[in-house]
Automatic annotation (TrEMBL):
Protein name as catalogued: Endonuclease/exonuclease/phosphatase
Gene3D superfamilies: Endonuclease/exonuclease/phosphatase
All residue ranges annotated as the Endonuclease/exonuclease/phosphatase domain in the record: 95-211
Species of provenance: Mycena metata
Keywords in alphabetical order: Endonuclease, Hydrolase, Nuclease
One Pfam family named in its UniProt record: Exo_endo_phos_2
Entry's Gene Ontology molecular function annotations: endonuclease activity
UniProt xrefs under InterPro entries: Endo/exonu/phosph_ase_sf, Endo/exonuclease/phosphatase
Entry annotated with the keyword Hydrolase: yes
Length: 240
């Protein structure tokens, strides 16, 4: 999976899908040609919070890798166009992905998270990919940008809900040298996930892409075949 804020960039999918390596592409501040992206890259399904007039988050899912039956958007947890919640089912494993854009002025993303996170099973596997627009020593000890109260509120929201930082701290994700693009996950997922900032995949944005690798064994249970020869039809119909 890759996370990218594509603001000010050329079409990110031209590069990100060139090798076909990414099953999920999390986009913050999507390119203005997003609808064309969906047309030009039919191998990917485009998901966004369509209940809202405007949105600043979207997710592309490679259908050759993830069957549509394994994808379940949660619009009930998306209060606005800046948060997208999707449940993915891989065999017996269910992962909830939250893609979030936290507005640099309103910091409304904190409110959105405080609504969504408590409504998820705390024992479940959760991954939050976000453009935080926030500065905090927990992820950027070297920043010279003044912190605000909302920055600490964002940090506390993650901690209160049992999520831990999975992206490397103090590694810049923005051309300014700041660390603002982040990934947090539940403790049950932490050992199975790695995150790396990869400048080589930069698509012309002032943000740097983050690559997530999830390493776990997918166990798919075998379906039970019904033997109609052993069926007592009369008894069955009698109980209806």
């Amino acid at each position: 999976m890759v996370q990218i804020n594509s603001w000010k960039s050329r079409n990110p999918l031209d590069i990100l899908t060139s090798d076909g390596d990414f099953d999920i592409i999390c986009v913050q501040e999507p390119h203005h040609n997003e609808a064309l992206n969906a047309r030009d890259f039919p191998d990917y399904a485009l998901i966004y919070p369509d209940a809202h007039e405007k949105h600043r988050v979207s997710v592309f899912v490679k259908l050759a890798s993830i069957h549509p039956s394994c994808i379940c958007p949660r619009p009930d947890l998306s209060q606005d166009g800046d948060i997208l919640v999707i449940e993915f089912t891989f065999g017996s494993i269910k992962i909830t992905l939250i893609n979030l854009y936290n507005d640099c002025v309103t910091r409304a993303g904190v409110k959105s998270l405080r609504f969504a996170l408590p409504r998820l099973d705390p024992r479940s596997k959760i991954l939050v990919a976000l453009d935080s627009n926030s500065h905090h020593p927990h992820w950027d000890l070297l920043t010279k940008t003044p912190t605000r109260e909302e920055d600490f509120e964002l940090h506390d929201t993650f901690i209160t809900n049992g999520l831990v930082l999975v992206t490397p701290p103090d590694i810049p994700t923005h051309t300014s040298g700041n660390v603002i693009d982040l990934g947090f996950c539940s403790t049950s997922l932490f050992m199975a996930i790695t995150a790396t900032v990869d400048p080589s995949l930069c698509v012309g944005s002032d943000h740097l892409p983050i690559i997530y690798t999830l390493d776990f064994e997918v166990k798919i249970s075998k379906s039970i075949k019904f033997n109609s020869d052993k069926m007592d039809l009369d008894s069955y119909l009698g109980t209806l």
